UniProtKB/TrEMBL annotation:
GO terms for cellular component: membrane. It is a single-pass membrane protein. It comes from Triticum turgidum subsp. durum (Durum wheat). This is Wall-associated receptor kinase galacturonan-binding domain-containing protein. Residues 6-61 form the Wall-associated receptor kinase galacturonan-binding domain. Its main location: membrane. Keywords: Signal. GO terms for molecular function: polysaccharide binding. It is found in: Membrane. The keyword Transit peptide does not apply.
Amino acid sequence: MARPGCPDKCGNVSIPYPFGTGNGCFQEPFNVTCNVSGAYLASTKVRILDINLTLGEIRVQNPYIAWQCNHTNGTNSTGGDSQGLSLDPSHKLSYTKNKLTSVGCATLAMVVGVTKGKNQLEFPIVNSCFSYCTDASNVDNSSGCAGMGCCQSSFPGNVSSVNTTSMAVPDIYDSNIQSFSPCSYSFVVEEEWFKFDPLYASSTDFASRYADGVPVVLDWVAGNGSCSETSKMGSQYACQAMNSECIDVYNGPGYRCNCSQGYEGNPYLQGGCKDINECEPPNQSLYPCKVQER
């Protein structure tokens, strides 16, 4: 449900309030830019793939893939490690659904970000993973991205910006590995979406193959503060619908809204949460259903 009188879609992407495109159609900082190529989050200019009100999530395209190539002819090249994904304060990288991911052999990947601790003091976070393989037969995807040609690592919560780096480890990276796997790639990606292919370990065009980026999941908050603090804000309180409830988020400070049990719709709009008929499909599998006799 978009705000009344506002577009509810951009291409094939639904734009529910508090997100919106056009003057008066969104709550800051959920301004969506819509053009022929798709929907974009105006604050960071990343492409939007999907918005989920109930989970408080937005899937976007992460365009930043760091890579390094060391070719046997002596030419070297790097890219993507001078830029990173930087978000506004209302959006955080989901630490439960994304992973630092790297493909390559004798490759060290690092992610450097900024998080906030107690009293909202900022401090850096650094995490890494190492992948290794000596030849094509040594690359194994039977156990997923577990270190043989591909590795993954988690990062903490409340992270609003990340920068990835990919590099060959000098003491391990030899001419044999170089002839088979001259390039390494590192990026933050939605864990469920990424499926490792052994051919990635020897690829020289992985970054160009995913030139538009890879999907990541962001958690977003409707406002700062806890539910107990913000419910007294009147018109500034984001949960505007009757039969809606406030939920404290776990990924950093802030709250979001959901319709109360037995109701569905948009809790951010007045009148947005509608009563569910529990006896209609598919609701009867989710709620107790009792037909009233007349």
